[in-house]
């Protein structure tokens, strides 16, 4: 499983980072991106899904 953040949709609400700080990072302007290549480590799947479900801009996508 991988997560991605669509930079064109992200508005910097940072809910993904608040819910799954091991999976997301913030740039200097407060916009999110996936850590590394976006691979979700075992045991973090629920956090990834929670982050995607709580993104108000639907910028976080999960790829199986």
Automatic annotation (TrEMBL):
InterPro entries, per the entry: Fe-S_cluster_ET
Q: Which UniProt keywords apply?
A: 3Fe-4S, Electron transport, Iron, Iron-sulfur, Metal-binding, Transport
Molecular function GO terms recorded: 3 iron, 4 sulfur cluster binding; metal ion binding
Cofactor(s) needed for function: [3Fe-4S] cluster
Q: Which Pfam families match?
A: Fer4_15 (PF13459)
Name the record gives this protein: Ferredoxin
Starting at the broadest rank, the lineage of the source organism is: Bacteria, Bacillati, Actinomycetota, Actinomycetes, Geodermatophilales
């Amino acid at each position: 499983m991988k997560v991605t953040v669509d930079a064109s949709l992200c508005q910097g609400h940072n809910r993904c980072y608040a819910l799954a700080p091991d999976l997301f990072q913030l740039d200097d302007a407060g916009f999110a991106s996936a850590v590394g290549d976006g691979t979700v480590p075992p045991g973090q799947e629920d956090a990834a899904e929670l982050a995607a479900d709580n993104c108000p801009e639907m910028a976080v996508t999960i790829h199986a």
